[in-house]
């Protein structure tokens, strides 16, 4: 009975695990070097309709109205629509206000991260293809 390597092919398990380890290390270093900023506040313009600006604070009005309507009658569909729509608008506003930037680092640090990430991906993918004829 023949023992197959990674992906059911006769490829190398060593290449598979080395590539996987390099990808994980490179991915960790890359993600840990990203800085996340936000500027969400209640006066932030979430949507604009012509000259009218809908701010994130204004989305609390239909949210509150929806909550009142739901507590008055839980079967009120308009209350649920107001509540869920406002909640969705607030979540979209929070996500849309997030900004990402790469931390300052030396070129050597960036090259090490990219080599680990992309070199590991290359090794990982090459381990999934056949490395020759099985004996």
Structure characterization notes:
- It is elongated, with a radius of gyration of 26 Å.
- It has 4 helices and 4 strands; from the N terminus they run αβββααβα.
- The protein has 2 domains: 13-33 and 103-127; 38-101, no CATH class.
- The strands form 2 sheets. Strands 1-4 form a two-stranded antiparallel ribbon.
- The model has no long low-confidence stretch (mean pLDDT 85).
- With 135 residues, it is of the alpha+beta class.
- A hairpin with a 2-residue loop joins β2 (45-49) and β3.
- The termini are close together.
- The chain crosses the membrane at residues 12-31, 52-72, 78-98, 110-128.
- Keywords: Membrane, Transmembrane, Transmembrane helix.
The ordered H/E elements are: HEEEHHEH
Global structural class = alpha+beta
What ranges have pLDDT less than 50 throughout 5 or more consecutive residues?
none
Number of DSSP helical runs: 4
Morphology: elongated
Q: What's the Cα radius of gyration? A: 26 Å
Q: What summary fits the major beta sheet?
A: 2 strands, antiparallel
Total E-strand runs? 4
Q: Averaging pLDDT over every residue, what do you get?
A: 85
């Amino acid at each position: 009975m023949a023992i197959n390597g990674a992906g059911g092919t006769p490829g190398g398990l060593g290449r598979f695990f080395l590539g996987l380890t390099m990808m994980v290390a490179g991915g960790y270093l890359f993600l840990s070097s990203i800085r996340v900023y936000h500027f969400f506040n209640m006066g932030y313009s979430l949507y604009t309709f012509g000259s009218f600006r809908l701010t994130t604070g204004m989305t609390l009005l239909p949210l509150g109205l929806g909550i009142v309507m739901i507590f008055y009658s839980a079967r009120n569909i308009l209350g649920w629509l107001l509540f869920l729509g406002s909640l969705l608008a607030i979540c979209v506003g929070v996500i849309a206000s997030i900004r990402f930037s790469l931390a300052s680092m030396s070129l050597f640090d960036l090259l090490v991260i990219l080599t680990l990430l992309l070199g590991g991906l290359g090794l990982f993918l090459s381990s999934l293809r056949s490395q020759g004829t099985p004996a």
